[in-house]
Amino acid sequence: MSIAERSHTVSTVSTVLPSPLRVGLSRTGLEVKQFFREREQLIFTFFFPIIFLAIFSAVFSGTDFSGGVDAATYFTPGMIASGIFLTSFQSLSITIAMERDEDLLKRLRGTPMSPQSYFIGKIGLVLVTSILQFGLLLTIAGLLLGVDIPTEPVKWLHFLWIFVLGTASGSVLGIAFSVVPKSGKAASAVVTPVVLLLQFISGVYFVYSSLPAWMRTVAEIFPLKWLAQGMRSVFLPDGFEVNEPGGSWQLGLGAVVLSVWLVAGLIVAQRVFRWTRRDAG
């Protein structure tokens, strides 16, 4: 082999880049490290749902939500769903807008990282933080608030696919929605009201069946309602489903709605995602 051929071979080998998945997984590790360095974000993410669960359990103490279901038991599924939505949709919408505003994404654009790898890193961060948040919330709910933890394997299988679909759809929607705020400073003001509105109409802070019919109709369009209802199917007794507006948990329909939002969110996120601010051209 001539010197020229050897040089060409070495050059070809040296330019082979890792796959988008490998880069994304590496980015996940970095995202997790950065997350745990932000104490304020850490406290808000992990303790916000727990604090609200404690408040609602105290306010509605002694209330029977049908079939012996107490306040702590009833609101636990909603707070789990809300926590997933906070760590996925709200957190990513705000942090990505801020990273774009601070030109962090502009610097990442100059690296071999593709948008897909960046998405994988963010979704990986959401999965890790959501699992830790869920474990902490369920431990406190079970030990301090007397919530019965399900033992049936089938319920935990339901939980697994609901959790995965919920975190994935919330993540891609958060990435897509991050282009809406005009600046990082405005991100919280734009995103938080949307999340609060969905929490109120999706059965997180109120008994879902007690909401007006028109409000339930609006909520059925969005993923948080189906995420909360799916979690109720896991953590509430089987007989409680008769109290749902449809008389059942509607898990099949919930899976369809969450899957549609996941696919639609991924398509939109890839089309509208920007590495730079709008005013940067």
Question: In summary, what is this structure?
Answer:
The protein has 11 helices and no strands. It has helices at residues 3-14, 20-37, 39-59, 71-101, 104-109, 115-144, 153-177, 184-201, 213-219, 223-235, 251-272.
Features:
281 residues; mainly alpha; 72% helix; disordered N terminus
Radius of gyration: 21 Å
Chain-averaged pLDDT: 88
Structural category is: mainly alpha
Q: Let me know the largest β-sheet.
A: none
Order of helices and strands: HHHHHHHHHHH
Number of helices: 11
Tell me, what's the shape?
elongated
Which stretches are poorly predicted, pLDDT < 50 over at least 5 residues?
3-14
Distance linking N and C termini: 49 Å
The amount of helix comes to: over 70%
Count of beta strands: 0
Assess the beta-strand content as a share of residues: under 5%
